[in-house]
Design goal:
8-stranded parallel sheet; alpha/beta; Rossmann fold; 6-stranded parallel sheet; 391 residues; 15 helices
């Protein structure tokens, strides 16, 4: 987890004073400072804008409770309060601290993610009586949150100081603004992307990749992400029952780990389902590059960074047939560049993976298609769209 830093410390000491005066100050907010898609994206954007002369900060409302999560050390996280509020009094204190922060060091723009941040930060900016523009963002579809946060987050773009509401995919955007035409003028769709450093690293790993098709070597399936109900690892573990010549590697940890290990044990597939635990980013990418196929059978996603990483490496993609995943694997002419499987159909998942393991031409075609959709995603494009918004 990234260390907490005093809110008064400057984050970009190397930026020249002339540049500081000419470029806006942008604060990126999240609920907490754990690693993950939002944290990685905000860190990448903050560093990229700082390189262009913007003053940027990464601010979490509270530290992550999961101390084992690895943080991004390029840019430190600031924390507004020392722990997650668990009472109305604590919540009001958090809002007060946000208001004081905005009065003391007024940014030109705040960019928010996660429901609590989308709601509280624009409100605190209004209460500070400072001219601060807010840009909210949604990274998973509506109805994936608990009530009342799900209902409230749908209206996060209503306040007058919110100039735009970003969704990471068209599917996510539709889920939030269906039937709310009066908010569509604020809606923007900006896909996630990987930082130039990660893209360069993936390019190097791609050049060294040696996928094994056929022969006696086991076919290598990989999946990575938090071990939670969202990721639906049950169906992948059950599919292993029908794939005796496949090794399934799962990278990550989370609240479902004990149950998933028990499931693998009950099914008798512990010899071919490997739980590799939490890894650093580069170690995880090396494991990803050593695999033959990437599987992500999530019950919901937004615009998965793990899918982008696998596509950049040219791994065939097998995903759940939910709208947001289908959007990701569909190219600009409507062609499917990955394989979609019913979300709870372990036998179909096993058949899809088996075909990739023995049909070399099919495997190569799906690998090329994967690289094709990855080529359309670039950090420069993503950062340019965010830069236009915050400017």
């Amino acid at each position: 987890m990234c260390a907490a830093v005093s809110l008064t410390e400057p984050i970009q000491r190397s930026v020249r004073k002339a540049s500081i005066r000419s470029q806006p100050t942008v604060y990126f907010f999240a609920n907490h400072s754990s690693s993950g898609g939002v944290g990685e994206l905000w860190s990448d954007l903050a560093a990229g804008l700082a390189a262009k002369g913007f003053r940027t900060r990464l601010i979490a409302l509270w530290p992550s409770a999961d101390t084992s999560m690895a943080g991004d050390e390029r840019v430190p996280w600031h924390h507004v309060v020392s722990e997650k509020p668990r009472s109305m009094r604590r919540l009001l204190c958090l809002v007060r601290d946000l208001v004081l922060l905005f009065r003391k060091d007024t940014p030109d723009c705040v960019v928010t993610a996660m429901p609590a941040t989308n709601l509280l930060v624009p409100a605190a900016a209004l209460l500070s009586y400072r001219r601060i523009r807010a840009i909210t963002s949604h990274h998973t579809p509506a109805n994936t949150l608990k009530w009342p946060m799900n209902w409230l987050d749908r209206y996060a773009s209503v306040p007058p100081n919110v100039s735009a509401s970003v969704s990471v995919s068209k599917t996510v955007a539709t889920s939030y603004h269906r039937g709310r035409g009066w908010l569509r003028s604020k809606q923007r769709v900006i896909s996630n992307a990987l930082s130039p450093a990660i893209e360069q690293h993936l390019s190097e790993l791609f050049r060294m990749r040696q996928p094994r098709i056929g022969g006696d070597a086991p076919f290598r399936v990989i999946s990575l992400g938090r071990l939670s109900a969202q990721k639906n690892y049950d169906v992948l573990i059950k599919a292993a029952l029908y794939m005796p010549n496949v090794i399934v590697s799962i990278i990550g940890h989370g609240p479902e780990e004990t149950r998933l290990r028990s499931l693998a044990d009950c099914l008798g597939v512990t010899d071919r389902v490997k739980f590799l635990g939490l890894m650093g980013r580069k170690d995880a990418l090396r494991m990803l590059a050593a695999a033959d196929v990437f599987v992500q059978m999530s019950r919901f996603e937004g615009h998965s960074l793990a899918l982008i990483e696998a596509a950049k490496l040219g791994l065939p993609l097998v995903v759940s047939n939910i709208p947001v995943q289908l959007e990701f694997i569909t190219d600009e002419i409507g062609r499917h560049c990955g394989i979609s499987v019913d979300i709870d159909d372990a036998r179909s998942l096993a058949r899809s993976i088996d075909r990739l393991s023995f049909d070399h031409e099919y495997y190569e075609d799906m690998a090329l298609r994967s690289r094709h959709i990855a080529a359309a995603l670039s950090f420069d494009k993503t950062m340019s769209l965010y830069e236009n918004l915050v400017s």
